[in-house]
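## retry 2 of 3
previous attempt timed out at serialization; input unchanged, resubmitting
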Amino acid sequence: MAATTPVRQSAGKPRQRRPINWTPYLFLAVPLTLYFAWIIAPTFYTFYLSLTDWDGISQMRFIGFANYQRLFGDRDFQLSFANNIRWLVIFITVPTTAGLGLAMIFNTNIRGASFFKMSFYAPLILSFVVIGTIWAWIYEPRAGLINSLLLSVGVARPPGWLADRELALYAIIGAAVWRQVGYVMILYLAGLKNLDPSLIEAGRVDGATGWYLFRRIIFPLLGPITTVIVVISIIDSLRSFDLVSVMTRGGPAGASNVLANFMYIEAFNNYKMGYGASIAVMLFMLSLVIIIPYLYRTIKTELEY
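## retry succeeded, writing output
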């Protein structure tokens, strides 16, 4: 057999690199720049500001953690923090329970369900300023709707809702709950529509009815929706500011104050920008304690699937 001579392949021309497409980066540049300018940079600046005694006018002076040391001994801060916790507990339990109950009712074929769903959802399209103004009229001690009804049924001295130290905070939370119930109802209705009917039918075949069917099958299937609702309710309760500012401005004597409103008063009314920034940082840290476990659980669930 004749020996074959290997054919030498020519190296040929080198492959040309494809030019970089800068179009996606240009589209991302604008939103990322705005996000950095309006969110990231002010956040870091707030952390720095909390370490100063700046009053918004004079020269800024670095004082370290003195604002935080003062914060934990401030009775007004302690009261605002306690009010935020009360708001959080009520805001998780009452709207979630009421919204779930309404969703279960309106998920059936009852007459006029569309009208009632629209009625409960309507407050959600109103701003907090409008809601605060409406409810301030409702709570008005002389001619408000609630006290007028109480007078008509024989109550001689109806309470001054927003002027009472014991009632003011809960009156404001009541207005916030009125708005939140419709939002929770819509989320639960969406969750109920997406449930697998075969699982519910299987439960009925096995004899599960009424409360047992709801507790053992329907509510566990709504677990992801419930988690989202709880997290949203926590975030909304921690950043509650508008209603307090419109209805009482934290009064009477700070009884209805919350951290966001207390921060605003210290920074922009009392001209203690550094102290107000330290309150903002504490509110940010409190939010992180709640949000990070939720994000961890969400990311872990997505990776598993």
